[in-house]
Specification:
Rossmann fold, seven-stranded mixed beta sheet, alpha/beta, 10 strands, three-stranded antiparallel beta sheet
Length: 283
């Protein structure tokens, strides 16, 4: 893959360097993604112990879909602090906070690498698909740890092996799409398999792992989980073409392959491997 041009660099800078973009289509895709993953997220929070009165830091909150679930769980006696870099996402989040009349949610626009996290003693920190995009995950973990009380819990959902995303029958263009996407993330300082590095970072910051859980699924076209990666393909191809990582011919090839797979009732999709990590601050 060729490196970004100055114009492509300005494109990502205009959106806060978000490789996936922050436009309305991405906000809609994130809504679908959260809906599909919501049962697994709620189960993780329950295993970690989030409940009424908890103080939670939502890191990389996006448009706030997890934020609002957390606000409901912690109740009026609890508090959720959402931190997010994108102005578009923050605006969407704040608008929803006002519409819902949430008094237990606080929103901060900040850069996780360059700004300090809001000063507070949080009981829990929630981090989903954030460490994979920052340029220095170890720095993120250090900041996150400092925000927690002793005995506080950090919960992560991050990719451990993105390349497990495959279809049966296998699709050559889809697999090439995955390679180009992960190349783009790496060029921009990300790590698509960052979860494999997290245990050592957590231990180095005084966090002890309490549980880990692989989250990977085998689904057919009629399963809603199928739509999670499928929606990423559609939006990801547009973004990849904008960034110079694909031409129109390749975009059409991927779309046609995936459309044929979705019409095949016997097709299977293996999703990207996500690792759930729950860790406690012990020092």
């Amino acid at each position: 893959m060729r490196m970004r041009t100055a114009e492509q660099s300005r494109l990502t800078e205009a959106e806060g360097d978000y490789i996936l973009g922050t436009n309305d289509d991405e906000i809609e895709r994130l809504a679908l993604q959260h809906r599909v993953w919501r049962p697994h997220v709620l189960a993780a929070w329950q295993r970690a112990g989030i409940g009424r009165g908890s103080r939670v830091l939502d890191i990389g909150a996006g448009p706030g879909y997890a934020t609002f679930d957390l606000a409901e769980i912690v109740g009026p006696g609890g508090h959720v602090t959402a931190v997010e870099r994108s102005r578009n996402f923050v605006d969407a989040l704040n608008a929803s906070v006002r519409t819902r009349g949430l008094a237990n949610v606080e929103v901060h626009q900040l850069d996780l690498m360059n700004d300090e996290l809001p000063a507070n003693n949080y009981d829990f920190a929630w981090c989903r698909w954030v460490a994979m995009f920052v340029t220095d995950p170890a720095r993120l973990i250090a900041k996150l740890t400092a925000s927690l009380v002793r005995g506080g819990i950090a919960i992560f959902h991050e990719y451990a092996q993105y390349s497990t995303w495959r279809l049966s029958p296998r699709l050559s263009a889809q697999e090439e799409f995955i390679r180009r996407v992960t190349d783009t993330w790496r060029i921009n300082g990300g790590d698509s398999d960052v979860a494999l590095r997290l245990p050592a970072m957590l231990a180095g910051n005084g966090l002890a792992i309490r549980s880990t859980r692989p989250l990977i699924f085998s689904v057919g076209p009629s399963d809603e989980m199928w739509q999670w990666p499928a929606s990423f393909i559609r939006g990801g191809l547009v973004r990849l073409e904008q960034l110079g990582g694909a031409d129109r011919q390749f975009v059409q090839q991927v779309l046609e392959e995936c459309d044929r797979a979705e019409q095949n009732e016997n097709a299977l999709m293996i999703t990207p491997l996500v690792l759930e990590i729950i860790a406690e601050k012990v020092r």
